[in-house]
Design goal:
Blueprint (H helix, E strand, L loop, with lengths): L2 H7 L18 H16 L2 H22 L6 E4 L2 H10 L3 E6 L4 H14 L2 E6 L8 H7 L4 E7 L11 H8 L3 E5 L16 E5 L11 E5 L1 H6 L36 H17 L1 H21 L17 E3 L3 H13 L5 E3 L2 E4 L7 H17 L3
Parallel strand pairs: 2-3, 2-4, 4-5, 5-6
Antiparallel strand pairs: 1-7, 6-7, 8-10, 9-10
């Protein structure tokens, strides 16, 4: 059995799950690791506690390997948003981002701007919400110091071209929310300066498994405003307030949850061993199948057709009068998807088998047969 075949076999859920962009049911290996480590922490033995704590360094090393960065530039976070807030609160100048980004970006940016007054927001507007190089080029000003963007847009499934965005913004900072693409699309993260993500979706590691990478340029320009007592170099001492670390460790608040780190490390190993390129190819086939059925039953799709411009999300945009009947048909056929603002987000993974895709086709067929034209 190849590593990719083993990865396939690790998807052991019931047929019908097409909501990986919302939550990734934990893999068997992650569940087993969590149970074993919980028992170790229940022993009270120093050696057992240290064994579980070792997963923190392991998870950081695996994140660094997949990003292609030095391990001392990687920190673990409780979530993607924690990393994004660390970046935004430490910025000054103009921050460019789309109004239609997932709210963790827009809310964090607004809160940081309102709280400190050193950051002003430069909103991007477009008809489709895609953050393209041309849109950014037309909107840049001399005051722009950073661009924040989702690697994969949670609403439309559009996949940003990070190297092209880097070419457009030049020496400005590029801050990336990678949660909808990390581990499932092969990306040149070297084009970015900050990458924040979480393991609870496509990585199948559960919540609390966030992480962030702050590159050299980010370390020079982002102040560690939210740095906590663990974000220091050397030993902690009482009666003295030390300065923040010169490394990415400065962008941490408190000690890492070692159980979360164990789940993240296990999930990252599975992805690394299967190969991100192979995973990306498999997911491209699954999203292509979803688009095939949508086209067959004349359900509009707003996700880009080119595989290089999408990841695992396919967003359907039914006519307003069709949204509720389509949602009902999907639910009646036992399919889990995300419904939001009249859109239907379908997100398959490598382990999405033919039986689930068949259910999806049947649901669209039933919807189509009852549709009133």
């Amino acid at each position: 059995m190849t590593d990719l075949e083993g990865f396939h076999a690790s998807f052991d859920g019931e047929p019908g799950y097409l909501d990986w962009a919302a939550f990734g049911p934990l893999s068997p290996a992650v569940r087993a690791e969590a149970q074993a480590d919980t028992e170790l922490l229940g022993s009270g033995r120093r050696s057992s506690i240290e064994l579980v704590d070792a997963h923190v360094a392991e998870a950081r090393e695996l994140v660094a390997e997949l990003i292609g960065a030095p391990v001392d530039e990687v920190v673990l976070q409780p979530s993607t948003t924690y990393g994004i807030m660390q970046a935004f609160y430490g910025l000054a100048g103009g921050l460019m981002l789309s109004r239609t980004e997932f709210p963790n970006l827009t809310v964090a940016a607004t809160r940081a701007s309102n709280a400190l007054g050193s950051l002003h927001l430069q909103w991007l507007d477009s008809d489709d919400g895609f953050v393209t190089p041309d849109l950014v080029r037309e909107s840049l000003t001399d005051d722009t110091t950073a661009l924040a963007v989702s690697l994969v847009d949670a609403r439309t499934g559009y996949r940003a071209d990070l190297p092209a965005l880097r070419d457009v913004i030049g020496d400005r900072l590029l801050i990336v929310d990678a949660i909808q693409g990390f581990g499932v699309v092969d990306v040149d993260y070297a084009a970015a300066d900050v990458v924040c993500s979480n393991g609870y979706k496509w990585l199948r590691a559960g919540r609390g498994t966030g992480f962030a990478w702050f590159g050299e340029r980010a370390l020079e320009r982002i102040a560690p405003v939210l740095s906590g007592y663990v974000g220091i170099d050397g030993e902690l001492s009482f009666g003295v307030v030390p300065v923040p670390s010169a490394s990415s460790a400065a962008f941490t608040v408190s000690r890492t949850d070692s159980l979360a780190a164990a789940r993240l490390a296990t999930a990252l190993r599975e992805v690394r061993d299967a190969g991100i390129g192979a995973i990306e190819s498999e997911i491209a086939q699954r999203t292509g199948d979803v688009m095939y059925f949508a086209d067959r039953y004349e359900v509009p799709v707003i996700t880009p057709r080119e595989p290089a411009q999408r990841a695992g999300i396919v967003t359907l945009a039914p006519a307003p009068q069709d949204a509720a009947p389509l949602a009902a048909s999907l639910a009646n056929h036992g399919l889990a998807v995300t419904l939001r603002a009249g859109l239907v987000r379908v997100s398959p993974h490598v382990g999405t088998a033919a039986d689930t895709l068949r259910l999806f086709g049947d649901a669209l067929a039933a919807f189509s047969s009852s549709r009133v034209w």
